[in-house]
Amino acid sequence: MRNQITPSASLFQSLIKQKAKIFALIIFTSLLYPNTVRAASPETAPAELKNSLTQIDAAANRQDVNAVMQFYSQNFTHSDGLNRQSLQQTLTQLWKRYPNLNYRTELKSWEKEGDALVVETVTQITGTQQMDGKNMKFESALRSRQRFQGQKIVQQEILGERTQMTAGVKPPTVDMKLPEQVRIGQSYSLDAIVQEPLGDDLMLGAAVEEPVRSDRFVKSAPVDLELLSSGGIFKVGRAPLTKGNYWVSTVLIREQGMTTVTQRLRVVEGARPSK
User: Fold this and answer.
1) Would you tell me which of 7, 33, 154, 257 could form a disulfide with 171, CB atoms 3.0–4.6 Å apart?
2) pLDDT tens digits, residue range 238-249?
3) Which of 262, 260, 163 is nearest to 210 (CA)?
4) Cα→Cα distances 142→26, 27, 104, 214, Å
5) How far is CA 247 from CA 22, 130, 141, in A?
């Protein structure tokens, strides 16, 4: 009498075959993509990488441009069109204008790709200074992706950017809402709301959109102010027909102070806009 396979035994054999196929697929995939690794948490990052980020911050806080550039490859490229030489010039001009900046970089994730490390970071930049007899405060958050090879940065891409500058005794507290990413030609809303009641104060303001360019890192675009009838700026804009990175800035001025907020807007093809 031949052995009969019960339904449960048949199901067990089927599962064994499926597991064998999955195991074979995993091995085949690992052979095709041997260097594909999920981004790892910052706690597991190599000590050399953590040390490099710490040293870059320390050199930037000293405003030692030569020490900072030691961590950048001669063939360095940047998503904003900078190379090693233009990056050095930009840092020199920025620190000349803002001599009291403080840098603090937080490692968000890292992964190994061949002989390179791909690293995502958020750098907080803060500073204060006197300009024309007024107190000025600078705050910026820069989210970026770097590619390290041999402890040198060979490539950098800016993923997000937001900068706020305030001046005066009582600058407006501004809550600016703007998407980080939109499609080409897509309409988007820009709201820059002043949190304090205006009372009898007059408010001047403006909104400016300009492409990200290396010559605009330090020198701001001209602004045409207008008298605002409400406590903020509320506009519907339309993304340019050319993909790329753009700065969207709002300027709000009242009698006792001024606040400027600038955020990077990424214009892309075919992607869903971020909320």
Assistant:
1) 257
2) 999 989 999 999
3) 262
4) 37, 39, 10, 16
5) 47, 25, 14
Long-range contacts of 156-161 (CB under 8 A, 24+ apart): 156/76, 156/77, 156/78, 156/79, 157/78, 157/79, 158/79, 158/80, 158/245, 158/264, 159/120, 160/264, 161/262, 161/263, 161/264
pTM of structure: 0.79
In the block, tokens 């041997």 appear at 34
Which segments of the chain does DSSP mark as H helices, in order? Answer: 7-32, 47-61, 65-69, 84-97
- Reported as a pLDDT band with limits 50, 70 and 90, residue 15 is very low
| Close Cβ partners of 186 (under 8 Å, ≥ 6 residues apart) | 238, 239, 273
Cα torsion at 77, 82, 84, 87 (round to 10°)? -140
CA angle (154 as vertex; 153, 159 as ends), nearest 5 = 80
Burial (Cβ within 10 Å: 0-12, 13-18, ≥19) of residue 204: middle
Percent of the chain scoring above 70 in pLDDT: 81
d(CA 184, CA 239): 6
Identify the weakest region by mean pLDDT among 30-39, 153-162, 233-242. Answer: 30-39
Least confident of 74-78, 123-127, 229-233, 268-272: 268-272
